[in-house]
Every structure is written in structure tokens, then in C-alpha cells.
Predict the structure.
Amino acid sequence: MAAILKAGGIVVPISTRLAEPEIRYMMEDSAPVAIFYSPQERAMIRDVTNALDNLHCLVAGDAETGETSLEDLITGASNKPLSTAPFTPDHALLCYTSGTTGRPKGALASHRNLVIGQGWMNATEWGLSPADRTLVATPMAHRTGMARMAGSFCMGSTLILQEAFDPAETVRLIEAEQTSHIGVVPTIARMLLPEIEARPEACASLRTMLATGEVFPVDVKERLFAALPHLQLNSFYSQTEAGLVTNLRPEEQKHHPDSIGQPVLGVEVRIVDLALQDVPQGEPGEILVRCGAPGEITMMPEYFNRPDDTKSIFVDGWCRTGDMARLGEDGYYYFVDRLKDMIVSGGLNIYSREVEDALLIHVAVKEAAVVGVPDAEFGEAVMAFIIPTDATPPTEAALIDHCRQHIASYKKPRHIQFVDTLPRNTTGKVAKHQLRDAVVSSV
């Protein structure tokens, strides 16, 4: 990554957890000049790169026909200093969005984005210093993983990479490496909890947890703080396109546990309706973000080779996030839903997350995902996919009656399906479009 950036190139991280068609799509869309991979990915790489011309294949190991080994590349490198890379454009990173609503788009990040967002903002918000030791438990191909690496470059701090996530190994690394910071998404935090609760003494060095990707569940927070009273949690709202937006700081976690915090220094936030007009305080609406011009501070400069999408996401200098929130009277922001996940049933707006929250209160519900499905009478109806806590799930009628006690009757699920797993993308977010597509295709 450092070499590519110094040479003036653009880094395109691609997760090895993706399926072959997904990797092929990203390769064809980004049209790279070179690809670096390890030998275990060789067969897949050959399958997905056959259609690409003039691609340099660089393997971290012994080279085969058509490949160059990374060792030979380094050994044969010239000692001549690199010429200075051009300052404009200063594109550095091309990250593909997680694709929870469809095919991913490539969001560019500039060198300025990395230096200001991951250097200056990391230092001010997380309290990072060169003495810190940060463990990355999220996929390196995701922007949060890249952010931790860029932050290490900027701060001169130590970065600890976990090859594959395993809760027991994560706790072992925290103890062995005297980790001070860890970057997670809530799904990983939830998976780590049993190991942390079993061995809290192994996490004595862990000072700060950085969590993003989705709203951090309050019950997970409470268990974390019970096991690690000294832990400082920063649960922040960020987006590949908009960068770091809001942060709920450690001292705010207990008195505003369900909030996504307040805008970080230099970031402006608006909550607007479908006509992009500001809504009254307390009303839900789409989150718009502004922080300098696109590409200059935290917002991406553009989507890669998608001028129409770029034009639609930036409105008068504001970045449309596609996420919904409300501003409380206390001055804190509260996440409501993805705009595309809002269900309109009989002309009434239903936010999938509030239905999920109601379901999760039930002791027999382990996980829940709610989507809108076609309905001949109401246009859309609420459908819930439930992972029960044990082998004997509650009845549909019992769960619907339970929801009626916690939310308005028109918001309760009309359909419930019990499942063993929920489809997720590489960052742990539920891929709701797959649930919708499965229902529509089965009708």
C-alpha cells in the first residue's frame, strides 16, 4: 500500500471472502494494471483475470508462468529515486461500497482524505499517539481496515494484523501484543464478548475500542463495560462516501447509549425530507454531510467512472448518505434506518429498525432482520426474518402480539420466517436486498 501510494498509484483492496463473480466484477470495473495476491488465491485469480489485458500478476511466493514473485520485484528494483507524484488529482484509494442495497460502487478517497480523516481526526477523536498499538480485527479490504492502516502511517503507531478473525485468537493477540486500541464492527464485538467475559484480565492493556459499521447495540455495550470497566468506547457513524461524521465518545456512552453521537470537529450535518428541505427537530429524515469540498477533507471526491452517481450523491456541496436519523432535543443524533429500508405500508412510514428493536426485546429472539415485501392491499407489508435463541422458537402469533405491545399495531410484522442464518456482506451488515429478492422470487 505504501509503495503504491508513493508511486502515485491507487490502491484497490478486494476481500478474499467475496465470491468469484463479485471479485470479477470489481476487477473488470477498476481495470487494474497489477494485482498482488498470495499463492492460495492463484486459481481464483486466474479465473477472474482472463478477460483483463496487460495485467501484471505479482504473487507473494514462488512464481509460476505468467507471474512475477514479490521477492523478485523487490530484488530487481532500481535504486533511482521516484519522481514526485502529481498532486492533482491526488486519488489514493478505491474502496467498493459494501453492497447492502445492490451492486457495489467504487468510492475514491484522496490522500487528503487519508491524512486528515485518519491522521488528524484519529489523533483528536481517539487520542491516538505513536506509542499506541492497534489491532485490526475487521477485513483489511474494508475501509475501516484501510483506515486503521492509514492512521498507523500518519501517527507512526504500531499496527497488529489478524490474518483471519477468531475470537479466542483476538483475545490472545490483545494480551500477547499489549494492544491498546482495537477497531471493530458491532458484529465482531458481539462475537468477542464470550471470550472477553471469560478472560477479562487478558484485555487489561486494551484502552480504547473503535466501533462503526452499524449502530452499536446497547446490550453489547453494557456487557462490555461490565467485563472491562476501564474500556473507552468510541461508537461512531461513518460512511465510505462521507467519511467520519458523528462520534459518541466514551464519557457519553452511559447517558446517551442509543445515540450515534454528535458531529466531529469540522463536519456539518443536516436532516432533510425527500425534497431535501430541513425537517423540524426531532423528525426523522435523510442525513446530509458536508466537510469542505468533495475530496478535500473527509468526503470522497467521486465515484470511480460513475459521473451520474457522483452527481446524484452531491447536492450543493452536501453528501447524501441514504441513511436516516433524527436530532434529539439533547443535541445528539439518533439513527433511524436506511432510507431504502423504510417500508411504506398503507401510506404509513415504517422504519425497519424500530420493528427489529421491538423483536429483539423478546427473550426467544437472537437476531432479527425486517424488510418490506409486496402486498396487494397495502402496497408493502412488514416481514421479519428471525434467528431464534433455541431450537423451539415462539409462534408467529406470539411474536406479533409481542410487537403490538411495544410499537404501533400497523408496524407489527405481517409475515415471520424463522431462519438459521442471515445473509451478510463482508463487513457483517445484513444484506437485506437478498432477503427481499428471495421473497419476491418465491411469489
